[in-house]
Amino acid sequence: MPKDHGIGASSKRREDVRFLTGTGNYTDDINARGQAYVHFLRSDVAHGRITNIDTAAASEMPGVVRIFTGADFEGIGSIPCGWQVTDRFGEVMHEPPHPVLAQGKVRHVGDPIAAIVADSLAEARDAAEAIELDIEELPAVVNMKDALKDGAPKVHDDLPGNLCYDWGFVEENREAVDKAIKEAAHVTTLELVNNRLVANPMEPRVALGEYNRANDESTLYTTSQNPHVIRLLMGAFVLGIPEHKLRVVAPDVGGGFGTKIFHYAEEAFCTFAARQLARPVKWTSTRSEAFMSDAHGRDHVTKIELALDKDNNFVALRTDTLANMGAYLSTFAPSVPTWLHGTLMAGNYKTPLIYVNVRAVFTNTVPVDAYRGAGRPEATYQLERVVDKAARELGVDPIALRRQNFITEFPYQTPVAVEYDTGDYPATMDKLEEIADIAGFAARRKESEAKGRLRGLGVNCYIEACGIAPSNLVGQLGARAGLYESATVRVNATGSISVMTGSHSHGQGHETAFPQVVAEMLGIPEDQIDIVHGDTARTPMGMGTYGSRSLAVGGSAMVRATEKVINKAKKIASHLMEASEADIELKDGQFTVAGTDKSVAWGDVTLAAYVPHNYPLEDIEPGLEETAFYDPSNFTYPSGAYACEVELDPETGRVTIERFSAADDFGNVINPMIVSGQVHGGIAQGVGQALMEGCVYDENGQLLSASYMDYAMPRADDVPFYSVDHSCVTPCTHNPLGVKGCGEAGAIGSPPAVINAVVDAMQSGGHDVTHIDMPASPSRVWAAMNG
Amino acid sequence: MYNFDVVTPKTVADAVAALGEEDAQALGGGQTLIPTLKQRLASPSKLVSLTGIDEIKGIRTDDSGVLCIGGGTSHSTIAGEGSAYPALAALAGNIGDPAVRNRGTIGGSLANNDPSACYPAAALASGATIVTNSREIAADDFFQGMFTTALDDAEIITEIRFPVPEKANYQKFEQPASRFSLVGVFLAKYADGVRVAVTGASNDGVFRWSEAETALSSNFSVDALDGLSASSDDMIADMHGSAEYRAHLIGVLTKRAVAAAG
Asked: Where are the domains of chain B?
């Protein structure tokens, strides 16, 4: 019998009641009395010098409260970057200023130039059209290779060029890797593009700033994955508001996918303007604005070389990547192509020598930052594509080649700094072969061919580092923040519980899954426990949700706090039952004394804590509320094996996914249904990247894929029914729940499976195509086969 | 949006009168115009909604068997009640999503003549007659290039008359993002010959592929198209496909339409 509550139960998502009935409370649902609306006048050119901006006439327009320009933000801080990368020569990265509103230059289409605050949005938009603005258009750099050429137009005039950093990892391995590749029996080389994506959460970004003159307090309601991080960055670095005077609330948030981690100019503007005007100021992004102002994802151009010995053992790996930063450094942008990417290049394989070179480049495009997986999909894609290509070149089975090179002993120290604590890669591959019915593929291919279709099978593995992250380690790597998590477990007098967590749920189901853990530990019903999150005034300082960290780090903090609660409750119970504390046991919500029939209920103990008439006041304080901060000792390393089967219509180039199977090892699983849902969503995004999505700029820096008319999002009928399995479990060895994280796996593991399958299909039709870049759209596939 | 006035006349005559005012614009189902207004790309002073005019809604078959569809008829109505012309009903049922199909109208689509819209291919391949408040226009004369038609200002499509063919089929290859036609081919076989109309592909909007029509009129079979290829001259080239790809798809889809029409 599957469990019906607690750890391991597929408890129904309690938050869905409000999400599915239109009763959620999203930022745009919040309206402050007397609020004004802001409309941002954004650059329509990719690169230019502002030669004149005159707001006088516009300021006289009906309803206008005030128009702000870059000049109003002189002396105000720059939008900060949260990670400083040191390059391979020991120099720190170039870190240009990022003003809230453009000062002097505009650097991408969508760069905000002026902010018009008015009584209504329509009046703000009318006034924007009355602003006299002259921009001297400058040549734009869009392509990264062009941006690095001598004499290329500079995105930032004060920098030597457009190179942000030239990172080498592990630099000491560079010569040894070069030598090993030179001497190898076989070297497979692949050049590829990891396509730029727009995250497109269902809810666009919104910010509402409030200011209370009576107590000098500012409040920002915002669509964020991490309100405490926003409070820290905006308060300390941009606006100079101390924490006790600044509250940041991220209520229901309709999807984040990374792009709602970062601190954005619009948040700082609304907070700043509300203080200036002593009036609430609200901004709601349109979908069009989202395309040109939300941080984009991916956008790497890579050359990867895999060296093998005569027995097909991997002996060395070398990669050379250009990573697009866009026009400014978004909050965590520098970390994505470096520490979240280079450290994963060992994958599931015991390649002894690895060298990763990444040059990060400024261009006149929207800033690029973390998007579901963040660096790890880029690592996995190139590695699993080059392994597949090597198998084809060597004429060996791609699954067998992978198995031959699997890491099988743990802990395993990779040559790229990280130590995998646990895993069982042959087991997930075995499970994949079973659920994907790899053995039956040949017959299915025949059926497809009888219909005039080509059929391809793509298999790959992945590993990711999540549960981000040990603070002392990331501090050494350049993080300007700690990456612990926090929880307060507040037990109420009658025994119900509120858990205040620094994690943030924006679709992940924390409100359901987190109580399952506490309920399991205390033996009380899940519905006695509620989760409070998303408000700096109600939760302890926490770092938020991204990097598949919430359960592994936030959940661990919650376990630690619950353990403290149990310890104190046992002391109270021992007093009530006049027994030794060492003999007290807690089971099914009852405290008992070992070897006796004495018992006292959970609710009696909690009541005693708050009505301490009969209470050991000389030993412990009244009340039952505990806080814990948890800083992980290592990353967690989920892993798995994925298989995709496609049909390809050779006449049109259209690829359809017929089967998709995922065998994941997430460590222990709290709620299998929610985990499956996370994998489903991740695969949909990975399939989107592989077949449909792609952000396209023209050579002048105009965003061509600026709406859903041209940016292809996957829809329900673009993805198949998935076969997912997470029964292969090697528990994480270093956190109390033995959990690893599942939020990003689908997006990391699926793109190479899809492209491996598309290449397989094309080759089965006799086409000598060894690679196709994403998205493998019908026109691209047709062109590849008819090139 | 900019400010504008809205009127909802009940008769074609009142609508035509209202459209006589300067900067007035007709509003059908609004599936193109409303997004355009929201982006402030148009600034009519007055919108003349056609949604209240019952006389331009509905589907009937006249005495000679011609299917007559009111210009204000929604895609969903045509999909549900256009069974006299199954290929047309199927086309209507695959436009956009349910919300689009419930609001969008055939008259609005034809008047807009989006180069990737579906209805223009059906009207042109069927040799339909576009009836307005003032005249009847043959489909061959109606479509005059991308977003351009023979309609005068203040002229309203009241009805579209479709001769029902012996056989017909519409093959739509969707642009992955918008799900408009990347290329769409509507094929209709009549006693006096075959007509093939192509949407989505050309910089000049919907057009007839005359070589295929000639070949199929003498031999209505997939084989008759062997060796025929549409020219890529003047084909649309964009991020979703090159001119050559679109030209190639015309051939593929025409063959499929013949096979599907039976």
From this structure: 5-49, 54-162, 167-261
